Amino acid sequence: MIVALAASLAVAAGLLIAAKAHSHPRARRGVAAAPRPTPRPTPHPTQRSTQRSTPRPTDTPTASTAPDLPRYSTVGALFSAGVGAPHGCTASVIASTTRNTVITAAHCVHDDAKGMQFVPAYRNGRTTEGIWQVTGAYVLPAWLRYHDPAADYAVLTVAPHVTGGRTVQLAEVTGAETLGASVPPGTKVTVVAYNAGRDDAPIACRATVYVLRRYPTFDCHGFVNGSSGSPWLTLDAHGHATIHGVIGGLDQGGCREYRSHSATFDSAVDILVRQAEAGDRPDVPDRPRPPNC
């Protein structure tokens, strides 16, 4: 539920975060087609890479600390070794009939995703919206077969919480965002992310989308390790948010600290949501090789 996202970012504009000194790669996207193998996944967040030797643009915005507002409850950190260890990727809650789905980059997930935990609205070590156990992951056939960067997104399912005999689904606690197609060049998006670490806060940046080598791209300083899977958001006139991409795709999200990519979102992403809703057997993707940055 990202209600007045653009207005809140203006309030937070003075709180700049320093880009982290070292990082790893991010991911890719794919097309839907062909039958899917029978699988199961586990996470190990692959992140993204940074080449500090490359000159940085001087007119590029810098991400700031995201305001501590309820609208950020849909975006959270992904942990592969429990909340006591650092988180390594970002994910966000998406609308589904089962109310238990999140989206992230496919390169953030490998083997059996049941070892992962999603913590929405994670901030300074606080887990006020709960810790949600991942139960499976769904990726496109092109990612399973050859880690196609055009297929670098994954839908994850999480287990409900049972409190006082009542079963509570994730989206009942956090709300959920609508999935949409990639936006045309020139569109402004807001990206909310967690760089790798722990006991930290999310960052956010409003930037303009353009296309680089057929991949949606934006420039903003500060998105490094852990930002893979971060949602690209727009708001409608009523303040409802739509996700048009996640950091990933070309070079697993980017080889430059100031430049981030996404796989193109189209009807293929809806296929993964439907498989998650139907309770299909989850996939078991292999860990991809780091990009050649």
Structural class determined from secondary elements: alpha+beta
The unreliable regions are: 1-47, 49-57
Work out the radius of gyration: 17 Å
C-alpha termini separation = 35 Å
Reading the helices and strands in chain order gives: HEEEEEEHEEEHEEEEEEEEH
Helix content: 10-25%
Shape: globular
* E-strand count: 17
The domain count comes to 1
CATH C-level label: Mainly Beta
Please outline the major beta sheet.
Answer: 6 strands, mixed
Order of the strands making up the biggest sheet: 1-12-11-15-16-10
In what range is the share of β-strand residues? 25-35%
CATH topology: Thrombin, subunit H
CATH superfamily: Trypsin-like serine proteases
**At CATH's second level, what is the architecture?**
Beta Barrel
Overall residue-averaged pLDDT value = 83
Secondary structure topology:
Layout lengths: L4 H7 L52 E2 L9 E5 L9 E6 L6 E4 L12 E4 L11 E7 L2 H6 L7 E5 L2 E3 L2 E3 L1 H5 L3 E2 L8 E6 L9 E6 L1 E3 L2 E5 L11 E5 L5 E6 L12 E3 L5 H12 L15
Parallel strand pairs: 10-16
Antiparallel strand pairs: 1-12, 2-3, 2-5, 3-4, 4-7, 5-6, 6-7, 8-9, 11-12, 11-15, 13-14, 14-17, 15-16
Task: Provide a quick synopsis of the model.
The chain has four helices and 17 strands. The chain has 293 residues and is of the alpha+beta class.
Write structural notes for this entry:
With 293 residues, the chain is an alpha+beta fold. It contains four helices and 17 strands. The strands form four sheets. It has a six-stranded mixed beta sheet with strand order 1-12-11-15-16-10, with helices on one face. Mean pLDDT is 83; it is low at 1-47 and 49-57.
